[in-house]
Design goal:
Elements lengths: L2 H62 L3 E7 L4 E9 L16 E8 L3 E8 L12 E6 L5 E7 L7 E4 L3 H10 L2 E8 L3 E8 L9
Antiparallel strand pairs: 1-2, 2-3, 3-4, 4-7, 5-6, 5-8, 6-7, 8-9
């Protein structure tokens, strides 16, 4: 074999090797460009989906979270107390020393010892109750404002008032209503009104 033929073969082998090396280095670059394109495009779609899903979850929570149900078990006696709690949609400012963002809770309680109760519990502050005037005002939907007698807690907690009478009637009106406004008096402050979404109550204990 002549030298010219040998050099020609060497040159062809060299070209093949160079082409192979270029192919190895150029392919990752194209793959990297494709991957970077996918990465840059994906978050737009996924973030939109996440936002839509979060909005759906939030709206679902607003529709179902107005009533919270709980059970307290007395293991010694084998008895249970049942509770349905609804927090006010708005908060109030009582000023010093109790502060802002104070809400009111309505609690329906069915207890084997104390019977059936409806309680109104403030986050902070002292609900005013005297022997001359211990009451709350209530308005169901667009009905008339009605006054109900209340009483203090036996334990002396100033944040709690109990409905004194018409407990079953009050609970029945909650079942039949979607909105409820409660007005209570705070010691050394005056009356404050709280709004409730009372729709969807699942309670048949009284």
């Amino acid at each position: 074999m002549s030298k010219i033929v040998k050099w020609g073969l060497y040159f062809l082998v060299f070209l093949v090797v160079v082409s192979f090396i270029r192919g190895c280095f150029s392919q990752p670059e194209s793959v990297e460009l494709i991957n970077s394109k996918q990465v840059s495009e994906q978050p737009t779609t996924s973030s939109a989906n996440i936002q839509d899903n979060s909005q759906a979850v939030a709206s679902e929570d607003l529709e179902t979270a107005n009533w919270v149900y709980d059970e307290s078990v007395d293991e010694m006696r084998g008895e249970s107390s049942y509770f349905a709690t609804n927090a006010s949609l708005n908060t109030v400012d009582l000023g010093f020393p109790y502060g802002t963002d104070i809400s009111l809770n309505i609690i329906l309680r069915s207890d084997p010892k104390n019977g059936n109760d409806i309680m109104f519990i403030a986050d902070r502050g002292q609900l005013f109750c005297s022997y001359r005037d211990c009451s709350i005002a209530a308005k169901f939907d667009d009905g008339d404002v009605q006054t109900y007698e209340a009483s203090e807690a036996e334990a002396g907690s100033s944040e709690v008032l109990f409905l004194s009478n018409n407990v079953s009637s009050f609970a029945k009106k909650i079942h039949q209503s979607s909105r409820l406004m409660i007005e209570v008096n705070f010691y050394d402050h005056g009356a404050e009104q709280f709004k409730f979404d009372v729709s969807g109550l699942e309670w048949s204990r009284f």
